[in-house]
Amino acid sequence: MSAYSALGDYPTAGHHAHRCLSALRPHMVRSRAITTTRLAHAQLAQGDANAATATAMEVSADAATRHARVSRMLQEFGAALRATASGSTTIQTWTEHTATWRMAA
After folding, report:
1. Quick one: which of 6, 74, 85, 9 has its CA closest to 47?
2. Is pLDDT of 66 > 70?
3. What pTM, to 2 d.p., does this model score?
4. How far apart are CA 52 and CA 4, in angstroms?
5. How far apart are CA 97 and CA 105, in angstroms?
6. Euclidean distance between CA atoms 50 and 40, whole angstroms
7. Cβ(74)–Cβ(98) under 8 Å?
8. Confidence of residue 90 (pLDDT cuts 50, 70, 90)
């Protein structure tokens, strides 16, 4: 999936992310969070900010705050969202959602 994203083939990256998510076992919280965040990036790169935000919001607050890599990836997603969808309500939704993580941490 990462290779397809790096090549800019976001539809294929998204397809592989869905396949990966369906194969992950429930206890693999960090791997699920990383793959979900990568899927959100792929959706955003395809121009679907609403779907990307909804996908990123599926990452649990626990995974977002306990795993540095996941936290960094979600911060990068937020920056890309602000750059891509400036002025949209999606950014406000994302900002409010991430504020709950700070309260939970």
Report:
1. 85
2. yes
3. 0.91
4. 17
5. 13
6. 10
7. yes
8. very high
Mean pLDDT in residue range 82-92:
91
- pLDDT for residue 104: 61
51 touches 43 (CB < 8 A): yes
What mean pLDDT comes out for the span 63-87? 94
What are the C-alpha distances in Å from 105 to residues 13, 46, 81?
A: 31, 32, 23
With a cut of 90, say whether residue 87 has pLDDT above it.
no
* CA distances from residue 36 to 16, 27, 50, 98 in whole angstroms, order as listed: 11, 15, 15, 16
Q: Which of 1, 25, 23, 20 is nearest to 12 (CA)?
A: 1
Q: At what angle do helices 29-45 and 49-56 cross, to 10 degrees?
A: 170
DSSP 8-state symbol, 28: -
First to last CA, the chain: 30
- If you average pLDDT over residues 98-103, what whole number do you get? 82
Quick one: tokens of 97? 């959602």
